Amino acid sequence: MRRHFLYAALLYLGTLSAQVGQKEILVYFDSGSHVISAEGASTLNALFVTDSLTINSVSVEGFCDDIGTEYDNLALSRKRAESVAEYIRTHAAIHDLSATGKGEIALNSAADALSQRQHNRRVAVVASYAVAPEEPKPVRSQPAAVDLFEGYKMPGENLSEGDKLILRQLVFVASTTVFEDAEACETELSRYVQYFKANPGINFEIHGHVCCISKSFFDARNIYTGKNNLSEDRAKRIYDYFIEKGIDKSRMAYKGFGRKFPRPGVAEKFNKRVEIVITKL
């Protein structure tokens, strides 16, 4: 049985509004098989492990090629759909999930039959999602900024071991370690560099956190590396920056916590953050 690679096509099917839409993933199978490959699992993870989307509902439809009887192909298409649906149930908290088998897909023509049949051995996963809302602009008449950073210290304040500071201007492009506003981030980070250079006795840890992922996953996916360690990668991004600017690495450590420690009383988007924890003075 010839093994066919898994192909994932992320197709935007149009948005219902500025904040919602749909994505489709096509998962291909070997002939006669309903077993999800390692590549298939990785592709499904990529859909459900993200810090920018909240999945509301999922529709799973299974298909077969035209080899075999119509009855057998319908049964196999159902098995493929259910295999994918069961994987999703196990790895993501999706309450609205449907799975159906659609049976075989006939060839369009006799030409290129092999390629057509490979394409027809598939499961289509359509996910309806909501995009995490943009960070609201502070309203001058309300102490929104104070509420957002309550409990955090600032460089230069009277610090104690265990105190936390938060990088207030640091915003990453979704599912990456790229700064959304490089100039604002550089300005804030340079102040930290100056402070730590002026206080060489301070040691600290850099903690990365993400938002918007299911409890089934520890961390979000870094779309550039394909690994589910986005919070750690973001913390390391700051760690590497400090080293580049002359902060001794022996003073620092970095960790990623996924969504293990969400902040109480704030919008979900604000769980995506990088904190600095003082460990030694």
UniProtKB/TrEMBL annotation:
Transmembrane segments: none annotated. Signal peptide: none annotated. Keywords: Cell outer membrane, Membrane. One of its GO terms (cellular component) is cell outer membrane. CDD domains: OmpA_C-like. Its main location: membrane. This is OmpA-like domain-containing protein. It comes from Flavobacterium magnum.
